[in-house]
């Protein structure tokens, strides 16, 4: 590349002396004769100093450049510069030099000329063909041709439009180095973008930073036809497009043409007519302020024909807010299409009861169990709300595919987090005007959970699963890429409404969490170490031959044996375990129960292992402590719940899967997690059976952990998962993902025991 050069000359009464001229005296024509003039070296030196202050470098000081440029130039604009440096000289130095008395002439072909006036921006949006589904899995849904738009971004110069999108995206793709070729100096306040072969437009640094932030969210790596270059947008990216328009509008004029993309609601300035209807209903008196805000948000989604996730903490009334929305829909107008609500089997009776209590005017059909054969199909056809289970959704899919729905609502929507599951494919196959997910834990184990929900709700927003893995999961989960996390957060945040108890339920009593470290006795410790050594050796061999992904089942099986040793040796199906007749954790539990029951506490005990609950039940029976029990094998769930809630028994044994959702147990004030689970959200759900709206007493949570064991190390994995989920919204696939470092840590030897024994007092 040829360097931009300057030819410097000095004006002596109309005679120009070039800077490279070595003469001290020269003659000028004056009055018909010649007059000798002596050069003013002091003023020339001052002029040179002014020029050099702007970064110009004298060619005579540069070895090797004089031969190339010396006969035609005196200075180069800058060494090792780029278009941004040279344009900065044109935009900043040239006007200042002119103001100081320099006469500056620019060659018409000089390639770094900068437009003097601030240009006006334009955004042009039009319909576009969907992108080709490259690398999409076979089960992926085809893109909807009506959901894609092309956006052109540029400036207007002398009445013509100049598309700047390619230049902006090139800058974006060179991030975090936005000007390609080294981080910009702090003094650089603008970046140049090419308008034609010789003209550039300068963008103020602050505007460029904001512009690239928004483009980073909108750009998925897809550009439409290269002439003219346009940005491909999904219809669900309306919030980002509005942010782009707002950014340009704050910095100058912006002309917006084309269709408007729907924008998710933030807050609503004025009540909608349907809200005024709510104000006159009995439901309005039952809603807390944050629940009323939630209903308004749902109505806002409805007005824009968008889907979303109501992700409030457990116990904050997601069901009531949803029923209120359905009541408004029913009362506001006659909707021909029914709403289908799909829930876990354990929540069927709860939805039936809540709909009858809060919205008895709505015709409801509960399609579940053997009783469904007695339901007249005409009743099913006339119902405005149909409630069924995930199991029946899959088994009777053809029935549900026969009609279209007003709303398709998934309660405990994390049920569809496995992208290859039959239940997710069944839910995605149904046609509905709008979709709504209810989940207090939209991210349970990894970001794939979030993708599954949003691919159901807003297909295309986050790309297909392979694109999402490459663009978000790998950078965020493996490399802790904060920039990618921020982009993902901004992409999904408009479609998630999440409030925590700490934010909205100020009157909820406090929750205190205690981690109770327990030390194993000598025999139980030896059993743990013998199983650990053998299991770790087996796992290492498996990983070497099949890799971590191919060894997942073997890893989880080995870790489960270690966890069972921590709970009680009787759970472990090996001969050596039958010789160990001590259980440190079970002994600690009964000491803790004695102390807590002495304080008249009402206690929930959770365990992942139903066989462990059986051992605890035997111990309670031996001690004459009455209890209720709920597992997947419990025939009459409500009877067990009523026994505890009515105060007939002080202890409730619950398996994590059977009792993690759908229970309101506010008569409890103490929660004991006998064994930790990989998924912190599952434990939080279990705890929130007691710590929820309606609770009036402080809640105490005890986590029983064997010191230095796999249980203690699970807590660290839990913390990382919790931080990731919290940052996005503010497996039970059969366990978590592992790195080699995780495995090394999980299979580490037990730490040496300390002398002090744990106390059972709170």
What structural keywords apply?
762 residues, alpha/beta, Rossmann fold, 4 domains, seven-stranded parallel beta sheet, six-stranded parallel beta sheet, disordered C terminus
Strand and helix layout:
Blueprint: E1 5-6, E2 9-12, E3 15-18, E4 25-30, E5 33-38, H1 41-53, E6 57-58, H2 66-69, E7 75-76, H3 83-99, E8 113-114, E9 120-127, E10 148-157, E11 160-163, H4 165-173, E12 190-194, E13 199-204, H5 205-218, E14 231-234, H6 238-251, E15 254-257, H7 273-279, H8 282-286, H9 289-303, E16 308-310, H10 318-332, E17 339-343, H11 348-358, E18 364-367, H12 377-382, E19 385-389, H13 390-395, H14 397-401, E20 405-411, H15 422-428, E21 432-438, H16 447-457, H17 465-478, H18 482-492, E22 496-497, H19 501-504, E23 511-518, H20 522-550, H21 552-567, H22 584-598, E24 603-607, H23 610-622, E25 627-630, H24 637-645, E26 651-655, H25 656-659, E27 670-673, H26 680-687, E28 699-706, H27 710-728, H28 740-746
Parallel strand pairs: 8-13, 9-15, 16-21, 16-22, 17-19, 17-20, 18-19, 20-21, 23-28, 24-26, 24-27, 25-26, 27-28
Antiparallel strand pairs: 1-7, 2-3, 4-5, 6-7, 9-10, 10-11, 10-14, 12-13
